[in-house]
Amino acid sequence: MAEINHQILLASRPTGAVSAENFRLVETPLPPLVEGQFRVRNHFLSLDPYMRGRMNETKSYTACQALNEVMVGATAGKVVESRNPAWSVGDTVTAGFGWQEYGTTDGAGVKKVDASRVPLSAYIGCVGMPGATAWYGLLHVCKPVAGETVVVSAASGAVGSVVGQLAKKHGCRVVGIAGGADKCRYVVDELGFDACVDYKAGALEADLKAAAPSGIDCYFDNVGGVVLDAVMADMNAFGRIAICGAISGYDGHPMIMANPRLILVSRLRIEGFIISEHLDVWPQAHAELGEMVASGALKFRESIAQGLASAPVAFMGMLKGHNFGKQLVKLIP
Amino acid sequence: MAEINHQILLASRPTGAVSAENFRLVETPLPPLVEGQFRVRNHFLSLDPYMRGRMNETKSYTACQALNEVMVGATAGKVVESRNPAWSVGDTVTAGFGWQEYGTTDGAGVKKVDASRVPLSAYIGCVGMPGATAWYGLLHVCKPVAGETVVVSAASGAVGSVVGQLAKKHGCRVVGIAGGADKCRYVVDELGFDACVDYKAGALEADLKAAAPSGIDCYFDNVGGVVLDAVMADMNAFGRIAICGAISGYDGHPMIMANPRLILVSRLRIEGFIISEHLDVWPQAHAELGEMVASGALKFRESIAQGLASAPVAFMGMLKGHNFGKQLVKLIP
Predict the structure, then answer these.
(1) Are both B91 and B144 inside the same structural domain?
(2) Does B276 touch chain A (CB under 8 A)?
(3) Confidence class of residue A293 from pLDDT cuts 50, 70 and 90?
């Protein structure tokens, strides 16, 4: 039993891009458990774009991350000590312990998961919050119909990769948007999308038109900005856009919509959503996604940074699209 | 029986603002009726913002207005000659005969209306297309709940005035946005809105906050541009925005959305609609609105230009907000 817990706190709020100085790594002694508590050794920490929003003090959809507190985040791990009869040493669990090696808890917000058919890390990825996000945004906001064309940005990422594979399962033509030839190749060759547009190749509008010759019916937007503008120009009448993220604006870049008149001209429905407000669908989403992972029907890829200390750099890289697949930090050697 | 029909044709397409040179007034002899036809003397022509879009050749939601053809538009009038047994001289009708004094038809697209309880002109106003637009956009797109705050722009106009009165009937707090103190006074004192913001007074954001202290749940948008931006900043979580028009951009002014990130932050639903694609609701909308007009529960105001030749100037004025209430042209002396 280790006696020291490493934690990363929010040291200061970023002005513009996140920097290493915004974080502080601390060592905290682990207190002895009291009756009813148990302790989890976190194996994986999930790094997600929403965390960037929490670092700001401005109005957002949730309370901001407090200064000098452990950074928020989903974790997957194993119970290593227990004074609670409902939880046994060796249980595999997910929780929201944040950027630290251990979680000490009475069980609130902790969930046992079966890591025999689905890898433990997937429970904070495509069978976790990102998976539920993809499932809800595609099926409940976009509502695609077989034969329609679905476009998703950040297509090789934790959410986008699930959106595209689900849309294929529903009989749609699926076009990804990703940064770089490697990611695009992966999206088409490994994930089975019909096409993928490399937004860094310099011909976004033309490439998108070529990839979606019948126009676009649904767009699952993770990035906002000029990519959203380009997709909007190709939307068919009665198209639906689910606004899930706006990563292009997270570092304070001004982000406008270039031609909102298209909302009227093309009779679009644009809807923003936050998956934590739709917890009722998580069980169904996770049951379906878990089955797909177990059967090999849903593929995923992970970018794994090693050790808690690497989390800030991995997080900054993810905001710039340096990750390739779900960004995780492995917290055990 | 007059033998000459005056008509206004689209002579050229505007580049930027509409000018008188874009129109041409012509005299056309009225041909004798053939069996099955009847002739309508148009009493009123409706001038509506959508016509501006039709004058362009660029992509829009309907076919553009052909050059050297009679400008499109809704009309209300009286049958003056008939060789069709289903239509009698003296019948009051609405139709889409466009910018001309007479319509000659076999009855397609013509509708008999009862002008005894509701004034004839109202059938191309609050009991016509503009009324159906308000009814559908408010009740089927915004879907306000009693107690919520509803904001509508162009509040004294043909659509906005109906939106606000319907929203009051549904138990909402209603805030109008209009240009000038006179219009604002009318909206509050005559139409019964709870408040009205004069967007020309130079303090749109602050005045809007004061008028909607609990934030905005629904916005019925007729104008787009900076007014839409200001309203979006005050929208409550899960707010709904019906995009009905974008008159601020009709003359080719570039029109952006300043902060689309709010769609995600406030989980907004923004939806564009075109009332001509929802003809199924017109009978119900018109039945309800007609009853409200007949009983005095729905008030309306008209700006009436005299004579067909005045239509271009009246139309250009309407696009600048010079009208006060529904803009009509009276085609009979």
Answers:
(1) no
(2) no
(3) very high
> Would the CB atoms of A261 and B224 count as touching at under 8 Å?
yes
What single DSSP character describes residue A88? Answer: -
Q: Does B305 share its domain with B317? A: yes
The predicted model scores a pTM of 0.93
* B163 and B253 co-located in one domain: yes
Q: What are residue A302's phi and psi, to 5 degrees?
A: -125, 145
Count of domains observed in chain B: 2
A255 & A237 share domain:
yes
Nearest CA to CA, how far is A327 from chain B (Å)? 22
What span, in angstroms and rounded, lies between the C-alpha atoms of A166 and A192? 11
Residues B265 and B135 in one domain: yes
**Closest chain B residue to the Cα of A236, Cα to Cα:** B61
Strands A269-272 vs A235-243: parallel, antiparallel or unpaired = parallel
Domain range holding B321?
4-125+300-330
State the pLDDT at residue A146: 98
Of A61, A264, A269, the CB nearest to B246: A264
Residue A106, classed as helix, strand or coil, is coil
* DSSP 3-state of A278: coil
Same domain, B208 and B227: yes
Q: Does A191 touch chain B (CB under 8 A)?
A: no
- H/E run at residue A329: strand A326-330
A159 & A66 share domain: no
Which residues are B82's β-sheet partners?
B38
Which residues of chain B carry a pLDDT beneath 50?
1
Each residue's pLDDT tens digit, B273-303? 999 999 999 999 999 999 999 999 999 999 9
Q: Contact, A270 vs B270, CB < 8 A?
A: yes
Other Cβ atoms closer than 10 A to B85? 8
